[in-house]
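Appendix C: a fully annotated inverse folding record. The material below is reproduced so that readers can follow the format used throughout the book. The structure is listed first as tokens, followed by the designed sequence.
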């Protein structure tokens, strides 16, 4: 029954994608036919549909001999996904404008080249600005006060990165930049809040990305949790062993004690449908000394009330990318209690990152690539006071 539902859902999705891409392709065909009279319709639609479905073609597990070509398809397809979202917004507005002008006697086929050129120029601006937002990273500093002590006068510095999506698109260059910036923070603890991989582990291994990740330096350890994309990739055992052998412990419904604080790592919510479930927060915290700071990573930002009641002090999440491309952030804002930024819920400090990498197109609009620096002020530390705290943002 479940397989039948998946088959029906997949068929409906393909049908919708086909209709949307036909709508986009038709408008591009009208423009090209105007600019290049005599262009072959057969050649055009073949090339267009291959590009339109290139990301899906690249996701197919092709034989090793054609893997390089499939990677190229995935990269091309990822950029097309951004173009598709832009077109879905702009083309209906253009059609509406032409329809209104048509009511006034305006010739609807007039100025096709001018209108098409304008949209293409706007698309170019969208891609350039979005690329800048994706690759140019911001460090957001959040000072957090916890009314608990670890018996030291120094505050804790915790570096947080989520949603790296390392693979064929987000590669070693962006990864090296992240490692260098995090190490400049001289953190006590480094936390990777899920989706380190972009589904497949193959490019992660092939490109030697673990060699860069193991350069992360923290006084009291580097810890990670699984995100939904690690589950989608299906190589969790291999991934966790590889990370562990290079000094990064992946916590799966586990708690570790370091630097006088508890680090709690939940399995991703995806485990509830793909792996038989995960432990509840109260069960995970059972037996812990609640007078000590508890910092929890849970990739998807849910269950704030439960975490607050259980005694968690800091909850760190990612997953949403803040929609990645506007106006998707209007959707994520409705789906989650907090889709990005900081929230104080009772005594629980929630920080949701927009992520360091990108899924699909390396494009961000109304969202930025970011790293999080937590300055955790504890009772007895030199910086602890009752004065209001304020966040800080730095472009790197």
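Designed amino acids, in order:
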């Amino acid at each position: 029954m479940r397989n039948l539902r998946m088959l029906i859902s997949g068929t409906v999705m393909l049908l919708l994608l086909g209709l949307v891409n036909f709508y986009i392709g038709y408008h591009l065909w009208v423009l090209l036919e105007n600019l290049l009279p005599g262009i072959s319709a057969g050649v055009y639609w073949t090339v267009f549909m291959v590009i339109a479905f290139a990301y899906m073609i690249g996701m197919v597990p092709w034989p090793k001999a054609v893997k390089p070509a499939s990677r190229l398809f995935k990269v091309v397809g990822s950029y097309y996904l951004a173009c598709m979202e832009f077109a879905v917004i702009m083309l209906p507005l253009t059609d509406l404008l032409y329809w209104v002008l048509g009511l006034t006697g305006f010739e609807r086929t007039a100025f096709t080249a001018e209108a098409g050129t304008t949209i293409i120029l706007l698309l170019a601006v969208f891609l350039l600005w979005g690329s800048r937002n994706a690759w140019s990273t911001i460090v957001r500093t959040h000072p957090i006060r916890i009314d608990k002590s670890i018996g030291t006068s120094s505050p804790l510095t915790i570096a947080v990165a989520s949603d790296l999506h390392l693979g064929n698109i987000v590669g070693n260059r962006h990864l090296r930049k992240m490692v260098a910036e995090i190490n400049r923070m001289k953190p006590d603890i480094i936390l990777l809040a899920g989706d380190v991989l972009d589904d497949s582990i193959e490019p992660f291994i092939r490109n030697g990305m673990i060699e860069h990740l193991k350069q992360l330096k923290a006084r009291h350890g580097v810890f990670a949790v699984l995100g939904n994309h690690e589950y989608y990739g299906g190589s969790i055992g291999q991934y966790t062993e590889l990370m562990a052998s290079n000094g990064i412990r992946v916590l799966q419904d586990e708690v570790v004690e370091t630097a006088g604080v508890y680090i709690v790592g939940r399995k991703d919510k995806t485990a509830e449908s793909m792996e038989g479930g995960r432990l509840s927060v109260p069960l995970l915290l059972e037996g812990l000394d609640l007078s000590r700071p508890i910092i929890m990573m849970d990739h998807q930002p849910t269950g704030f009330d439960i975490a607050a009641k259980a005694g968690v002090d800091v909850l760190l999440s990612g997953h949403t990318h803040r929609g990645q491309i506007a106006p998707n952030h209007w959707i994520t804002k409705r789906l989650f209690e907090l889709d990005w930024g900081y929230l104080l819920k009772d005594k629980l400090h929630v920080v949701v990152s927009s992520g360091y990498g990108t899924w699909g197109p390396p494009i961000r609009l109304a969202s930025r690539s970011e790293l999080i620096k937590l300055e955790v002020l504890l009772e007895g530390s030199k910086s602890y006071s009752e004065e209001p705290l304020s966040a800080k943002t730095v472009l790197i």
